[in-house]
Amino acid sequence: MQIQAIKREQCPEAKQVILAGFFERFGFIDHSLNPDIHDIWTEYMQGDDLFYVGMDGDRMICTGAIRRESDDTFQVVRMSVLKTYRKHGLGRRMLVHLENKAQSLGACRLILETNKHWADAIRFYERNGYSVTHEDEVSCYFQKEFHV
Fold first, then answer.
1. Is the whole-model pTM more than 0.85?
2. How does pLDDT run along the chain (148 residues), one tens digit per residue?
3. Can you name the residues that pair with 50 across neighbouring β-strands?
4. Of 97, 10, 47, 118, which is closest to residue 135 (Cα–Cα)?
């Protein structure tokens, strides 16, 4: 898998990768939710908010993005790997890429959230050094600190 910054023309395909994951998890798509994926280019490719895609040749198989929350904190968002490509370390490769990029932009801490009923996603983040900070009715929140 080759990881690269998204190109404008790849935005519709990236949206479909993300929506495929939602459909798999929920069994339906509510297009009124997740407004940030309606215009990925405008939402993410400005300043220090960056969106990446993982490519297998010409096929997009993975997405991930970071958003600056403060001078030293970034949020990991839009992590998604197509189902047929899971369990091969691709999500981990994307996560490490996002962590390295955030650190190069001054991050000392990364935060993220995932649905608290997605046990596999929770295990994934815990295995990759993230610790739970809190939960609410819907989400589980994580952080990972880096020592500079």
1. yes
2. 999 999 999 999 999 999 888 777 777 777 777 888 889 999 898 887 899 999 999 999 999 999 999 999 999 999 999 999 988 999 999 999 999 999 999 999 999 999 998 888 999 999 999 999 999 999 999 999 987 6
3. 66
4. 118
- Reading the block at residue 146, the tokens are 């880096």
Indicate the SS3 state at residue 144: strand
Q: Which residue from 60, 56, 50 is spatially nearest to 9, judged by alpha carbons?
A: 60
CA distance 137 to 135: 7
* Amino acid in the structure at residue 110: L
- What single DSSP character describes residue 143? E
Starting at the edge strand found earlier in the chain, the sheet holding 131-135 runs 2-5, 50-56, 59-70, 73-81, 109-115, 139-145, 131-135
| Burial degree of 50 (CB within 10 A; 0-12, 13-18, 19+) | buried
SS3 letters for 13-78? HHHHHHHHHHHHHHCCCCCCCCHHHCCHHHHHCECCEEEEEEEECCEEEEEEEEEEEECCEEEEEE
